[in-house]
């Protein structure tokens, strides 16, 4: 696991990140918002997560 369970700010997805054998991260998530393209308004968010997604967990495992 490269980051703990957390919830995204923008799409409310509940997810965690894991390291692949090839060395890159894959995010696995659920409960994301469904977007209707006809009325969706793009926004920029300065926060990544409402809570969680502690990436220092993955850094500790590499040491």
Automatic annotation (TrEMBL):
EC number: 1.13.11.25
Record keywords: Dioxygenase, Metal-binding, Oxidoreductase
Enzyme class: oxidoreductase
GO MF, one example: 3,4-dihydroxy-9,10-secoandrosta-1,3,5(10)-triene-9,17-dione 4,5-dioxygenase activity
Cited Gene3D superfamilies: 2,3-Dihydroxybiphenyl 1,2-Dioxygenase, domain 1
Domain of life: Bacteria
Bilayer-spanning residue ranges: none
Protein name: Iron-dependent extradiol dioxygenase
Organism annotation: Nocardia cerradoensis
Gene it is expressed from: hsaC_5
């Amino acid at each position: 696991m490269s980051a703990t369970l957390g919830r995204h700010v923008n799409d409310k997805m509940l997810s965690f990140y894991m390291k692949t054998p090839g060395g890159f991260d894959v995010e696995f998530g659920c409960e994301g918002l469904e977007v209707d393209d006809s009325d969706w308004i793009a926004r920029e968010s300065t926060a990544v997560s409402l809570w969680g997604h502690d990436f220092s967990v993955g850094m500790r495992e590499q040491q």
